[in-house]
What does this fold into?
Amino acid sequence: MTDQRLAGIDIGTLTCRLLIADLLPAGRLNQLHSERRILRLGEGVDRSKRLKREAMDRVVHCIKQWREVMSRYQVQRCTAVATSAVRDALNRQELLGRIRSETGIDVEILSGAQEAERTILGIRSGLPPAVANVLALDIGGGSTEFIVAPHGQRPVVRSIDMGVVRLSERLLHHDPPTPDEIGQAREWIRRDTAEALAGMPQRDGFTFVGTAGTITSLAAMGQQLPAYEPARIHNYRLSLETIADLEQQLLSRPKAARVGMPGLERDREDVIASGAIILRTIMEILDERQCLVSDVGLREGVLLHLARSQ
It folds into this structure.
């Protein structure tokens, strides 16, 4: 066993993820074990600014189980990060204290910029060799990050407080959403995107890359995969035409009727519609006709950052 066996935990607004990997001499990761669970930690945080007790219970229970998994794999070093929901919550220290006392793991709260910087680390580790200059989009539960990453230069990042959970809770109150709600959502996305992109470097000739659950789910749905297949998701080219068609399908039916749609991960039925609205609207603003899908992102970037920090 290598003495560079690492584990990373990403505590997101909607989903928690675990990755255990060996660090190879060339600085690449050899994945040994990965898991993700939709735990909805950020449920209600946009309105109340507080994490719910039952949501914290779910996350702590999950991390305790993952601690046992890490022990079986004889992990040498572990890192855990939290993003939008924990950033926003007034009672975040209660969650961090519980995780520390019950699992022994310290959690780092990432700013939006730190989240984006580690995400692009992960994305770059999995890009095709021909892709050099990147405009990356990471749609999360509570926030969305834009990353302009020219080859060999420090990335320029912007984070906005708009994600699939936040958008759903704030605006999409009917099931399915009404045309007025959808219109309000698009206007919010346009406004925040324009603010985020103001003053960003020129992006002519950059490859548009998307990562995280919304985009990988839409890639799976676009291919009508019966089960999630990372090899068919990663570096798949998802067209705006396909996204618009999926958005129409999702918005034309209630949550219950989305269950079982090919490629749609269970328990994502309520937020996938807001994710499709976000992705389609941003791509139209950017005049991007295609999205290169990355099945690697923050989770891998967190491990690469841990390795570099030694």
